[in-house]
Amino acid sequence: MSRSPPPLTPPSSGSSPSLVRTRSNPGRVQRDAQGVVTGMVQPQTAYASLGTPGLGPPLPLPVPREPRGVFRGGLGLSGGGPRDSQISFEDMLRDLDDTIPSHPALQPAHSKNMNNASSASMRANGARPLVNKDLARSRSPSTRSNASNHKPNDAAFNSLLKDLESIGSLGSIGAPSPKKPIVRTLTTPAPVSVGAQIVKGERERRELDRLEKERAAKAALELEKEAFLKKEMDERAEKDAIRRKEEEARRAENEKIRRIKLRRETELKDSEARNQALSTRLTSGGLALSAAIRAMNGPDPDERIIVPEYIDAVIRTLVVDQTVVPTPEDFANYDGYTLWQNNVSKPLQEVLADFLHCAHVQPISPQALPVPFDVFFKVVEARALVAKEGRSRDAYCKIEFGAIPNPDAPPRTGIEVFMTETVQGSTQPEWNQHVDVASADLGDVVVVSVFDQRKGDFLGRVVLSLREIATSCGAAGGDGFVSRWFRLQPRAAKNKDKYVGGEIWLEMSIDMEKHPQPSELSADPIAQLEAQLVSCKLNFKALYTTLLRACLILDINTSPPPATQPAPADPSAPHELIHLLSPESRATLKYWENKWFIRGSFRTLAYLDLVFQKYKVYEVPVWALLNAYEELYGNMKRNPGWLNEYEKPILIDILEEMHSHYKTQVSNYREYYPKNKPDEALESTILLLRMIFKSPVFREVHPTLPTSFRAEIKSIMSGAAHSRFKKLQEHSSPFDESDVEAVIDGLIGLCDLLVAELIADYKYYRKSFEIELDIVRMNADIYVEKFVGVLAAKFEGLDGAAALLLGDMVVKEASGSMFILYKKLKSFEAKYAKVCPSIKMNPYYIQFRVEDWFAPFVLKWLDHLSTLTVEWVTNAIKADKFAAMERDETADDSLQHSSSITDLFQGVYSNLDNILDLRWRNDVQLAGFIQKFGKTVFRAVENYCDVVGVSDAVGADAETGQTFSNFIKSVRSQREEQAPADITNESCVKLCNLEFARMKLDEIHSMMNVASLARTQADNRATLAQRKKKSPTTAKASSALDEQDKVHGAFRIELVYAENVKPVTKNGLANPFMVVRLPDGTVVPPLETDDPNANTFFSKITAAPSVPIALTGNACELARTRPVFDCINPVWEESFSMLLPPVSHLDVLIYSKNLISNNELCGKTIIDLSGRLSRLRQKLADHHTHDVYIEFAPQGRGLVRMTLEGEQEDVEYWFRKSREKLKRTQNDLLRGLTTKVSPYLKEMMAKVIKEHEGVALNRGFLQTALGTGVTQYSNQTAAGVAIDLAVTPAEADTAMSLLTEYLNKNLELLCANLSPTMAHEIIKRLWEEVLNDVEYVLIPPLYGQIETSRRYLNKRQVSMCGWALNILRSFFHADGEALGLPYRVLDNRKYLDLTSLMGVYFDDIVRIKREYELSFVYGREKEMLVRLVRLRTEKQEELTPSEREEGRKWVDVQMTKRKDR
C-alpha cells in the first residue's frame, strides 16, 4: 500500500483484461459485439482499470465522477450516495471476480510469474492503450474540461484504497487479517475479505433464488397437476354420486310403482270379496238372514247411544266436507265409475248421509219389512223312536207351515200341511222327502210331527220358526244349507204323551242367489242403496273412510284435544290409549263396519292414516298419533294374523309416508319444534320414528336398514347436520365472493349462526335425543369439520388458489371486520369447548387454529399500521389550534392539553384494543405483536414530536424545519429593537400535550403488561440459544459479548456534553452537535429465523436481510444531537436507544452546524469495543450505565454514557425510544421556553452589573487617532458611586424590579397552565439560567478566547451579583408556597460554587491557586478557581508581565493535568 500508483491511463484496445468499462449517455441502448441489445446504460457511472507495479494485474476500481466523489459504497453496495451514482451489482461482481482471485496474494506462484512477465512484456513493447471515447462522452462538461480527472493524484488514490480497506476488500491482500471474518466459510482455510464474502454471498443468494424459483415452478406444476387430477377425480366422483343418486331414485320410483300396483291389486281383490259378500246379503236369503238376526237379537247395546242429534251433526259435517270422493281408484274398474256417474252421480258424503238418515234417524223395524224368500225343507230319517218291547212303529211325518202362534192349537185355516209316506215296522224310518215353502214373514213357524199310523201314537215333534231357519241357513255359508239332527220334543203336559223320544234328521236351505225385485226392495232403502253401490262395484272402504273422516272431524271440532296428553286419574293404573273418537262415533263406525264387512284392522289403519293427515296440518297433537300407532302396534303384537294380505300394502304406504314425514321433522327439528315446543312433541316424534323403524312390515320392505335404531337416527341426523350447515353457509354467503368485506361479514354471520345452533341444541333439544344419541356432540363435530374447511379455504387457499383473507386488500379495507371475525371465532371455539367438552378430542377441533390463521394477518396489519402514523398525526394537528380543552371535572388528569394529543392517542387506543382483545395464547407471538405495535406507537410519537417541537425548539436542525430563510429572519429580528419575549399559552399547551403523551404511554405500557412479555421474550431467546449450543452445526455466538472482537445488541447511549470543542466561527465559537455512527462497511448478518420475534439488527434496514449487507453512508448513522449555537462547551444530555450489529468500535464526530454551507468537522474519535479483555467491554457486561470519557482530535473531550440493555430488540425497546423521544422534545420545548426568557434575563443581568462598572477615562486626541494606548477607568461608576462600595439592598431591589416583574408575569402563566412538575422544571431551568448568567459575568469559560471587552469585576459589581442571586433565589422560592422551589433545589452545587467564588473573588491569586490544588485532595475539583485565575491573569490590571506569564503557565499546567485525569 506504500507504493504510489502510476497515473490512471486508458488501456490499449489490444489488451482485453484492462479494457475500461464505462457507462455511456443516460438511457442509451447498449449492444454487444454482434449488435445484440444487452440492456440500457445507466447514467453517471464509469469504471477504470487501476494497476499497481509489482502487485499483478490491474485492479478494477470505480472512477470518481468528481474530485470529492470518492467511491465510499463498499464494493458497490448502496450507501448514502445518490441513486444515479451507483454501479450495477452485476458489474461489481464481475470486477471483484476479476480482482480478488487475480491478486498475487491469492494466486499460486506460477500465476504470479506469468502476470509479472505479461506486465513487463507490455511495458517493453511500449503498448499504449487508446483513450475510450465513450468514457469521455459520458462525463459531465466540468469533468471533460478538467483533464486532471483522468489522472487522480496520489492522495485521491490512497484515499480510495483506504475506503476499500475499510470494508475489507483489499485488507486480506499480502497478509492474513488477525480478525475473524464476519462471514465464515468452513471449506476455505485462508481468510477471505468481506468484499469477497459479500460477492460470494450474493452469488449464492442468486443461485439459491434461481433454484428456489425452479423448485417453486416445479412445485407449482405439481400443484397444477394435482389440482387437475383432483378436479378430474372430484368430477368423476360427482358424476358417480349423481349416477348413484339417479339409480337410487329410479329404484325408489320403481319400488313405489310396484307397491302402488300391488296395493291396487289387493284393493281390487278385497273390494271384490266384500262386494260379493254384500251381494249375497242382498239376496232374498241374505235379506231374510239380516232381518232374522236383527229381529232375534234386537239392536246392539252400543247402538243405543247413537242418537239422531249426533247423526244430524255427522251429516252436517259430511255436507261441508270438501274431499272429492269417490275417485276412479275407489271402484273395481273404470266401468264401475262410469255406472256411478250415470246412475248415482253423487259424492259419497251425500250417500253416507242417506245411509245414516235411514239407519239411525228414521229406522224401519225388521218386523215391518216384508222379506220374500224360499225355504227348501227335507225330512231325511228318524232314529230311536219309542216303541213297546219287541214291537216296531209305522211312522210318518206331518209338516205344518204358516202363522202358528201355538203349535198345540194350530189354526184350522191359513196354514199349509204336508204329509210324508209311512214307513212300516221300523223304529228308524227313512223318508228322504222334501218340501219347498215360500214366505214373506219371518214369524211363520214350521212344525214337524212324527206319528205311528197303526196305533195313532204321538212320537214327538220339532218346532222351528222361519227366523231360526234363516239364521241357521245364513250362518251356514254362501249356499245357505243346514243338515242336522233335532231331538223330538213332546207336546204340552195335558196330552200325556208316553211314547215321545228319539231324533229326526232335517235338512234346510235358503236360496241365497235369488235377488229380489226392485219393487220388493222399496220398503228397505238401505238395501236399495247398497244394491246400487254393489252394482257400481264401489269399494266400501272408501265409503267407510269418508264416514270415519267425518266422525273424526266432528269430534275434533267438538272437543279439541289438548297439546299434551291428559294425565290418567290413577297414576298406578296401566297405560290406557286415548281415542280422539267419541263413543257415539265408535258405535256408529262399528255398526257400519258390521254392515259393510269392514275388518277391525282396516278401521285401525284408516284411523291412523286420518290422524296422521290431521297431524301434518297441525290439527291434532302428536300424542294422539302416538296412541293410534300404539293401538296398531299392540294389535299386531297380540295377534300376528290380525293384519291380512289386503291391508298390508295399506300399512306399508302409511308407514312410508309417516317415516318420510317424521324423518323430515326430526331432521328439521328446529323449524318444526322451536324451543322444543310443544312439550314432549319431539320425543314422541322420535319414538314414532323408532316404532316405525322397528316395525317388521317396514323392515321387510327395507332390508338394508341397520339393525340398530341409533345407527339409523345417527345417519339421519348426520345428513341433516350437513344439510343444515350448507343451508347456513348459503344464508351467510355474499353475492360477490371477491368482495372481501362481504366475505368476512359472511363468515361472522356463519359463526354466529353455528354458535346459536349449538346453544339451542344444548338448551332445548339435548334431552329429547339423549336416549338415541348425543345431538350436541354430533352436530358440534360436523359443524367444526365443515367450518374448519371453510376457514382453511379462506385463510390458506385451496387448489393453488391464493388465501383471500391474507391479502393486502384485507389489511387496508377490512381490518376492523377481521378483528371482529377473530373475536367471533375465539368465542366459537370457547363456547363449543364449554358446551361440549368432549369435542376437544375431535381432530378437526384440534385443527381449529384461529391464532395460526390470524397471525400473518396481524403481522401485516401491524406493518400497515406503522404506515398510518403520519396520517394520524397530520389529521390530529390539522384540527388542533393548540388551545386547552375544556376539562371534565371528573377527569383523572388536570393537564391543560389540546385536542391533537387526545385524537392521536384515541387512534392508538382504538388499535390497542384490537390487540388486547386478541387474548393471544402464545405469549411469545403476543410479545412480537406488542413489539411491532410499540414500534408503531414510537413512530406516531416521533412524528408528533417532530411536528410539535419544530416551531418552539431552539437551535433546531435543518432537518427539523430550520432553513436558511428562517436564519436570515432571525438575524434581522435580532437587529431590531423588540420588547421582551413572553411565554405563550400555545407553548404551555404543547408541553402539557407531551406530558399527557408520557402519561398515556405509561398507561399503555401497563395495560400491555410489557415487563412480563419482555421476560417471556428473554426466556424464549435463552431457550433458542441453548438449543443452538447443543446443535453441532450452529456456530453463532449466543451472547452479545461472546465474540472476540465484536459486540451487538440493544444499547442505550446518552450524549452528555463536550468541552473545548474546536472553534470554527469568526468569533472563536462553534455550533456543535454530536453524531454517533457505525464504521463504514459494517456488515449486518442475515436475520435469524428461529426466533419469531427477532428483528433486524439495524432499524434502518426495512427488509430482513437474507445475506450479509454492508452499510455505508447515512445508513451508518445511529444518533444525532441538536446543535448548540455559539458555544464550545455544549451540553446536550440526550439519550438514544439503538440496535447494534456486530461491531468492534463506534465512530463519534462533532460537527458545527452551518445553515449556509456544509457542516464543518470539529473533532472525531472512536469508542473501542473490541477485545474480550477490554475494560469497557467488561463494564458493559453487567448491563449497568457506565460513563465513557472520550478525547476528540484535534482537541476537546466529551462524556458519553453507555448501557447494554439486551442482545436483541425486545418489546421494551420501542417504549424506551418513545419515552426518550418525548423527553427530548419536552426538553427542547422547555429549552425554547427558557430561551424566550433568558435573553431578557441575560440582558437585565448584564445591564444591572454594567451600571456599576467604573467609567472609562477619555484618551488623548493623538492616542484616539492612532488607536494606541490602554483605556483607563475611574474609581467611580457613571452615577458617581465608588466602585469599592457594596450595593445596598434598596439599590439591588430597584435594579432587579423590572426583571422580577417580567418573570412574575410569565411564571404566573406557566403555573396556571402547566402541571406542578412541569412548572417546577421550567423554574428550575430559569434558575439555572440565572446561575449561568452570573457565572458568565463573573468568569469566562475554561476554553476558548477571552473576549477583549471583558473586564475583571470590581467589588460593587460582585456585590451586585450576590444581591441578584439572593433576590432571584427568594423570588423563585416564593416563601415555599404554591409552586415555589424549595431551598434544597435552589441551593444546588453551582449556587454554592458561585457563592464560594464571590467570597474568594478578590483573594490573593496564590491563595486561589493553592485552594484549587487542594480541591483534588478532597475529591472534588473547583473548576471555577482555574477560570478565575485565568481571568485575573489576562485581565487584572495590577499584575506585572512576569506574574501574567507565571499565571498562564500555571493555567496550562492545570489544563494538562486535568486532561490527563
C-alpha geometry: rod-shaped
C-alpha-based Rg, rounded: 61 Å
The biggest beta sheet is recorded as:
4 strands, antiparallel
Number of strands: 22
Task: Name the poorly predicted regions.
Answer: 1-89, 96-154, 160-189, 953-977, 1033-1038, 1089-1104
- Alpha-beta classification: alpha+beta
Please, what is the average pLDDT? 77
Strand-residue proportion: 5-15%
Termini gap? 38 Å
Give the neighbour order of strands across the main sheet.
8-5-12-11
SS element count, helices: 45
Q: Please identify the oligomeric state.
A: single chain
Helix content: 40-55%
List the helices and strands and how they pair.
Layout: E1 29-31, E2 37-40, E3 47-50, E4 59-62, H1 89-102, H2 109-124, H3 133-138, H4 141-145, H5 154-166, H6 194-281, H7 284-297, H8 308-320, H9 334-344, H10 348-361, E5 373-383, E6 395-402, E7 415-419, E8 430-439, E9 445-452, E10 458-465, H11 466-476, E11 481-487, E12 503-510, H12 518-521, H13 525-535, H14 540-558, H15 583-596, H16 600-616, H17 622-638, H18 648-667, H19 669-672, H20 681-694, H21 696-701, H22 709-732, H23 740-769, H24 775-795, H25 808-813, H26 815-835, H27 843-846, H28 850-866, H29 869-878, H30 899-916, H31 923-949, H32 964-975, H33 985-1007, H34 1010-1030, E13 1047-1059, E14 1072-1077, E15 1082-1084, E16 1109-1111, E17 1117-1120, E18 1131-1143, E19 1145-1152, E20 1160-1168, H35 1175-1180, E21 1186-1191, E22 1197-1206, H36 1213-1250, H37 1261-1266, H38 1289-1313, H39 1316-1338, H40 1355-1373, H41 1383-1386, H42 1389-1400, H43 1405-1415, H44 1423-1435, H45 1441-1460
Antiparallel strand pairs: 1-2, 3-4, 5-8, 5-12, 6-7, 6-9, 9-10, 11-12, 13-18, 13-22, 14-17, 14-19, 15-16, 19-20, 21-22
